[in-house]
Amino acid sequence: MYYIKWGLTLIIWALVAACLYYTLPRYDVVRITNTEVRRIEAGANSIFWANPGTSSATNDISRDIFFVDAFRPNNRPRVYRNEDTGWGWPPYFKLNSANLQAEIRDKISTRDNPSWVALRYYGWRFEPISIYPNVVGMRDVDGPDVQITNWFNIIFLTCFVLVFGALWIRWRRFRERRIDPVLERMGDDLDAAGDAIADKRRGLRRWLQRWN
Amino acid sequence: MVFARFLVILLILQSVAYVAVLMHLRGNKRHRLQDAWQRADSAEDRDTYVRTRLARYTDRLSLRLALAIYLVPLGVIGLIIYLTNKT
């Protein structure tokens, strides 16, 4: 029972951590090599694609998406998508994907003459199911070794832990004041019932033994 | 259409938060008033003492809480929209 409870707690926290890791913004220092528009079919992986634009309401499976090809300083490729999140989830309220695409295209450079930028993005790149992180913003940086401090994440996670801690303490106090006494009384009642049954059983056994 | 859905969800969440916070703050105030009644040793009986003052507290609180809970998130969202789309 103990292991089950801890296992469940662990699973729930792993899910929360995964959601946060997917949704919170991160930074990559890259050089841009190409931008394009590709048509994608959002089939089984459709939760990893944003809902279509801010203009239409229907959920098309087949859509045209902006893509950005980039290379990290170790010359490994990173491909991002550039989609409006609009009024949907995650709450970035990103409405300027076309403008952002134009700005990114302006920054295209070559391996020999690189121009480094920091892309702010969220999401995962997982090739087996063809999902791409979503670029949310771009910033010029001086070189490939720049360290970027993710202030938003620091502040957000601190507040998240504080709020969760505050709620948890209040839940514990509420439980001790209201729920535990009721459970103890229920436990006592069950024990009393168990004793009563045991007494009756002893009586029955003695009566049976008299007949042996 | 998506915008309408977003607004509806936001309104629902804000209303739930408003009710929850209002109940919580009123409960705290009620406890403080009960303690104050014992200390004050007034002529009124406890229920009347608590009820009148709690009503006054709720009147003053409800407007400010509504403004805070309904308007502050809109401000935050406006800030996010500006920051995200300004590149």
In short:
The complex is a heterodimer of chains A (212) and B (87). Chain A is built from 3 helices and 5 strands, in the order H-E-E-E-H-E-E-H. Chain A is α+β, with helices and mostly antiparallel strands and 212 residues long.
Describe the structure.
The complex is a heterodimer of chains A (212) and B (87). Chain A is an alpha+beta fold and 212 residues long. Chain A has two domains: 25-148, OB fold (Dihydrolipoamide Acetyltransferase, E2P) (Beta Barrel), CATH 2.40.50; 149-199. In chain A, 43% of the residues lie in helices and 22% in strands. Chain A has helices at residues 2-23, 97-106, 151-210; strands at residues 26-41, 62-71, 77-82, 116-122, 134-140. A five-stranded antiparallel β-sheet of chain A has the order 3-2-1-4-5. The longest helix of chain A is centred in the C-terminal third of the chain and has 60 residues, at 151-210. Chain B has 87 residues and is mainly α. The longest helix of chain B is centred in the last third of the chain and has 40 residues, at 46-85. Chain B is elongated, with a radius of gyration of 19 Å. Classes of the chains: A alpha+beta (212), B mainly alpha (87).
Helix/strand layout:
The complex is a heterodimer of chains A (212) and B (87).
Chain A: H1 2-23, E1 26-41, E2 62-71, E3 77-82, H2 97-106, E4 116-122, E5 134-140, H3 151-210
Antiparallel strand pairs in A: 1-2, 1-4, 2-3, 4-5
Chain B: H1 2-40, H2 46-85
Helix pairs in contact in B: 1-2
- From the 3D coordinates, which CATH architecture of the largest domain in chain A would you assign? Beta Barrel
Largest beta sheet: strand ordering of chain A: 3-2-1-4-5
Sheet with the most strands of chain A? 5 strands, antiparallel
Number of strands of chain A: 5
Keywords:
heterodimer, A: alpha+beta, 5 strands, elongated, B: 87 residues
